[in-house]
Amino acid sequence: MPLLDPGHGALRPRTDAGHVPAHDRVPESLAGGTPQPLRGDLTRLLGEAKVLWKVSDLVRYASDASPYRFLPQVVVVAEDTDDVSKVLAYARERGRQVVFRAAGTSLNGQAQGEDILVDVRRHWAGVDVLGEDGARARIRPGTTVVRANAALAPYGRLIGPDPASAIACTVGGVVANNASGMTAGTTRNSYRTVASLTLVLPSGTVVDTGAPDADEHLARAEPALCEGLMALKAEIEADGELTARIRAKYELKNTNGYRLDAFLDGDSPVSILRGLAVGSEGTLGFISEVVFDTLPLHRRTSTALLFFPSLAAAASAVPRFNEAGAMAVELMDGNTLRASVSVAGVPADWAELPKGTAALLVEFRTPDEAAQTEREREADAVLADLELVAPVLSVTNAFTRDPKTIGFYWKARKAFVSAVGGSRPSGTTLITEDFAVPPSRLAEACEALLALQERHGFDAAVAGHAAHGNLHFLLAFDAAKDGDVARYAAFMDDFCRLTVERFDGSLKAEHATGRNIAPFLQLEWGERATELMWRIKQTVDPEGVLAPRVLLDRDPKAHLRGLKSIPEVEAVADPCIECGFCEPTCPSGDLTTTPRQRIVLRREMLRQPGASAVNESLLESYGYDAVDTCAGDSTCALACPVGIDTGAMMKDFRHRRHSPREERNAERAARRFHLVERSARLAVAAADGLRRKVLPKRGERLLESLTGAARRAVRPDLVPEWLPQIPSAAAKRLPATDREGAAAVYYPACVNRIFGEPDGYEGPSLPQSMVIVSARAGRPVWIPEDVVGTCCATIWHSKGYEAGNALMADRILEAAWRWTDGGELPLVVDASSCTLGIGEEVVPYLSPANRKLHERLTVIDSVAWAAEELLPRLTVERRAGSAVVHPTCSMQHLGETEQLRAVAQACAEEVVVPVDARCCGFAGDRGMLHKELTASATAREAAEVTARDFDAYLSANRMCEVGMDHATGGRGYRSVLLELERATRPD
To answer: Cα(617)–Cα(33) distance, rounded to whole angstroms?
Structure first.
């Protein structure tokens, strides 16, 4: 064991004497993880790396965005269709069941299983745009909708489905659930826009429905299946009443049960199978690839958020906007609007909206200016006849073209589930349901639903895709209380009867059947159609291998089984509804755990009794899997609709693990940082000299060996590992500057005072370039003489050293106050993470007096300074042919990624921001403490970058540049300001 290993005792949850273990806790029998022979069988079949078996693995995959929780016996991380076929063959032979999971954003337990769970996200991302016009795209199932549309955007195309969870949900899940979203309706959903798909059947047969010989291939491989499908088609078509009923049911949005119209639309087994696969929820096969017919991306957008005195008034306006050609008409009731104030950017005065208020989010999308002007004219004509209200000052009731305002409107709308759910009482489970009624009866349905919620004691809230009669609502209750579960059960009985008997509606409009509605399938479809669905399952999956009880279940109380308890955890994470929006942004998601999984694991610890073998196993893994490999970049907070910062929780856990001695040493380092800084620069210089001059052939290996031995002896999370991409030392002295006439104070971050530029770079250093280019633009900057020994405090903050963090926060604030003459000049910082640190992150740790001073400081990132102050005053003399840009996570927090792009575009003819760019995971020195974190976080971006050559590799933070250098094999990432200086240098 390393000398300073902290153990896991400090991470043990703090519970009071009255702690009661949860009814749904993981049993002690699984403390050792996957039982034998299952673990051994799959390890031999697939290899050790593809089988996740620890109890922590099982727990983190047991939850999705739904109110259900089912613990798998094992998790398989499949890499290709061969792996999937092997697992299916094993399951058939051993009588086991298989469930496929991608993003886990499904709202009704479709991504959960109780036996073998197969992860089909990690190795299943990618988009192949077909043809020069992008009219079709081949997309792998682990690709998020946002990623797919980003690849199509240069072609002016997009895919039809647009669910609110697009940043996280994957194409495989979208197709398997026939999820639609804001604009897809019944004409742009997966069923209508999927041209073909590749399906791995339960038998292991792989069918590409787009292949010319697909029917012949399927007939040879699966004759009984083909015969069964055609027999079902003939039976359905012979029943005129049933046929008419099927057609009528799909005039509304409907994802309840199998797509019976596949038998009416398809004329062969393969075409029928293509239709059945859409919305089948993984019960008929694994969709390994999808070819979409893409749709035009109309970039010109006009949007309004319109407020009405009542739901009825809002609903009555919906047909008018539909007739005017609106692409989206979204409804939010007053409770939804008020709850949305928890979302960053939503006006605080929404909390004061009257109870009866409702709003419509209306959007028109057009291809050109002329069409946009005409749509706006038609929309204004509609507005003139409406009964609109403006009960609070922020309401405008007007159409806008401003992208920021439009983005805010959609953020508020898409946060319905998380914003409303995030404000639920602590300890309650959240259920999200959707249904559809004829659009003409929308207002009636809203009022009936709200009355039903109130009658059963639930907080009333409703939102939805009003243009399509599709409504959403939420229920919060405590699954650990029998009375609450009984209340929920009674509500569901009444709700389902109301929807079917009063409105002849769809019990599921776009979320797919799932475990919550499976018991009510026959209520909606009737006995005849429901039995046909059971026969479809028997025909395609005769052994019942795939996803049992997800879509079909004869148990009338199946929706009450597996409801998850929600133990109260740390306050920062307690509002989490496990939606999964955070996961695609997380640097460690493909290595260890995601933010959602970190919280899920914490909740399981609190389900357990105080002395628990399960807890010991969870804690043993949690230190590395959750705490050590968290980059602490907090991009999860940006993705989370209610701003949960799991990174902050991990920093607190790091603090808990520190011994008093470690805290004192960290404070001493902060107090004597001028010595630490000089020592660090000397160490970098010595190491550089060793590898280049003393031992040019063996220096790198020696440094790696020495740091590796120290890491093993002391602790890997304390001692950095040497990386070949670590640059040489910075110059001892900073450039000389004058205070008189300076337009800003320039603060070279400590990282740029310690490390120099990448290998092969010839030109002025970053501090020199900043001084030169600012003077060249007539906006000279001044570097204070006493910057050495100061820091933005991120070093201590990111590691959870509280005393050192507070000391350095106050020191940098007081120095900045003095340097800027009490805020008279702006402070320009040349590392984005340090800009964020000084500008925002230090605030909670400042003394009360310094907090007031901070309010009067203006802290500007050097890239924003260049984009806004320098570029308009500079002349570009030369441009590189091409540049690839890595936007740092700090720039995302600062909202300045567009400024980075703007400066890069001034310097290069072609600027590429990789589609898969995200936090590099280097996080100061974390990439040297755990280089596997950066390797995993950057894998997709690095593959995109190294697929071609660029003339320049640019970013805005020295350690992120080192991380990207490491990921791309030494491409020479450097600050965009260096390139700006070169581009504007006079001939």
So the answer is: 9
